[in-house]
Amino acid sequence: MSESSDVGPPTAIEQPPAGVDWQGALARIAGWGASILNGFVGDRLAERERPLAISMRLVGRKGEVALERRLRSQLGPVTGSICILVHGLACNEQAWSWFHPENRDYGSLLQQDLGYTPLYLRYNSGRHVSDNGCELAQLITALCAAWPVPIEQIVLIGHSLGGLVVRSACHYGRLDGASWCHAVRRVFLLGTPNLGAPLEKLAELVSQTLKRIRNPYTYLVGGLLELRSSGIKDLRFGYLVDEEWRRTPERPLRNNRLPIPLLPGASHYVLAGTLTEDVGHLVTRWFGDCLVRLPSATGQEGSAERSIPFPRENCRVFPRLNHFDLIWHPEVYRQIRHWCGE
Predict the structure, then answer these.
(1) Quick check: 297 and 191 in contact, CB under 8 A?
(2) E strand map for the chain
(3) pLDDT per residue over 286-335, tens digit each?
(4) Count of the separate structural domains present in the chain
(5) How is 115-183 classified by DSSP, letter by letter?
(6) Is 221 a member of any domain?
(7) Got the DSSP string for 221-244?
């Protein structure tokens, strides 16, 4: 007797779940793995020209943007208002929509509400901030040369380390006399360690201490800590330019931060979070948003010489929003939209 007539269709268990894009999911996992790896050892990957080293790219809603090709075919309708979003350490462009159930982000909402054309930077966050900033400045120059319509304004949004990269790019662009600097109207810094991050200071202190102990095991641990990337080390004091990290390398705990001016003609906005409702609470005073303390995020140190002149009216603190909440939160977006609409 033939058994073929008794064999029914495969059960639901034997079939892959409908609607699940496994190929896309695996690609995202691989992308995040590479981004995390680059965040911690990306400088070494780049120096040795390893395939896993991430190259700086602009990404649109349809994927990577090739500036040598027609931008309209890659981005769809474009406007004269450009918004560039720069992610933080060990992340990629997907971070902006990772926590939103509908994959909406500040860029897509600004496009919907105010007509901006959003672009997302993908880069090797383990390299020095100054290296990434210089390359981003050159990339924006190339982008403006290829843009198919007259550019009216540029908005830059940086989260965490990305905020330092944005400020570095503005600095190097201004030094090079790049015309796009005059088009930058607004710079948003979300949870950016403008004056440095205490966790990186602690890591350096522990590393130096362990290496001084006459014990092979503690020396090994100290040496392993020292392997963290240049991008991470730049977070120690919020370095933006080559001259800062190149000075006194034999004294890594010395603050060599220089008074880098804000980009003239652009309004700078600071958005910071705190772990508690009361911004004066001891927990918030010590830990800020869990990674960046409030004085560092707002650029306000004890002395005016060491502070960054962000206008007070351009600083907004969000109680009970941690460092990663700032990547996507309705209140944060409402504030960005309000400032963009002024």
Answers:
(1) yes
(2) 57-60, 63-64, 81-86, 117-122, 153-159, 184-190, 267-273, 315-318
(3) 999 999 999 999 999 877 778 999 999 999 999 999 999 999 999 999 99
(4) 1
(5) --EEEEEE--TTS-HHHHHHHHHHHHHHHHHH-SS---EEEEEEETHHHHHHHHHHHHHHHTT-GGGGG
(6) no
(7) HHHHHTTS-HHHHHTTTT--SHHH
